[in-house]
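@channel sequence for tomorrow's demo:
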Amino acid sequence: MNPADSIQDLQYFGEFGGVNPSISDSSTYTFLSAKTMFDTFEGNADGCYLYSRHSSPSNLYLGEALAAMEGTETSNVSASGMGAITSVIMQLCSAGDHIVSSRTIYGGTYAFLKNFAPKLNIQTSFVDITNLEAVEAAISKSTKVLYCESVSNPLLEVADIQALSKLAKKHNLQLVVDNTFSPLSISPKQLGADIVIHSLTKFINGASDAIGGVVCGTQELIDNLRNVNDGAAMLFGATMDSLRAASILKNLRTLHIRMKQHSINAMYLAEKFESLGIKTVYPGLNSHPSHKEFKRQMNNEFGFGGMLTIDVETLEKANALMEMMQDENLGYLAVSLGFYKTLFSAPGSSTSSEIPEDEQKEMGLSPGLIRFSVGLDNDIERTFQAMQKCMKSVGIL
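structure tokens (generated this afternoon):
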């Protein structure tokens, strides 16, 4: 099933027949009987709501749409992407357990696994996720989770999800895939992932005005996350606000249109940058080490995504270029991604700064690496010509 069609086929009516579902702007809900309240606490009253930290109609509407997109039984939305990631890890792991993770992941995820989880006696081995032998060698008897990003942040390494799924099943692990960089382009569940995570803040919302996350998985997993006694999502309290859930659901409806344009524009810039002799990484380029893997896994109509990197060697050149591009209104010097304008940053000193410099060097994260989240420009050729002028002005070309 096409993931965009799965979203489109969902039909919601508002309380008064509106084409958008009504927003449940309540933190608590009333009951006609005390027995129903008790049953709801015990999780035995379908369709009843108790308290918005547990769930709300607005959050469940959004969750249903995201589960449909990813092809999972259900999902749980949260107040941030990190709220989704940390709750899953803490639900799946206990003291003494072990995680095998990709070495190139979002800096916040890295910091949680490297610096915080060990306080709870949960250890992580970071490996090159494209080296399946290294991945399997890192698995031990105490390993519970295999964690990766479909397309890694910021180096754009591509995970072979089908192969990783086979490894996970062989060793009885849960394969958790963060699909933030490639919504619609890649469907991890169809490729064998057990759990799919998104930061809704990025492409899915697309407006840089909301923070959110989601965990897509089995009904059993989501029930466990929401359990009032020991559910990590429930007890950590990273609850999405109903107004934000309603807003993100509206934006989700145009994701398929936006992702196609993000991909078209990113491919154009990547090919042009590479033709100028600039070191360019983009999964759509034949020069990308995992181009064939991405192509084999992708939903073709949505392209290779909106993320690309160039390496201009030094942080000084990177900063000069980014500042000039912002001055020329070609985008914003800002973190995050998925906005209608192009966003650019030097991840080594920003979104990946949690990773020590020696580890950045080992994984190939150069100080001069610039990460582009390519926008929805109508005339991408005009944008490229202006970017090329900026590159010449700062001595990159």
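heads up for whoever presents: The domain at 3-252 is CATH 3.40.640.10 (Aspartate Aminotransferase; domain 2).
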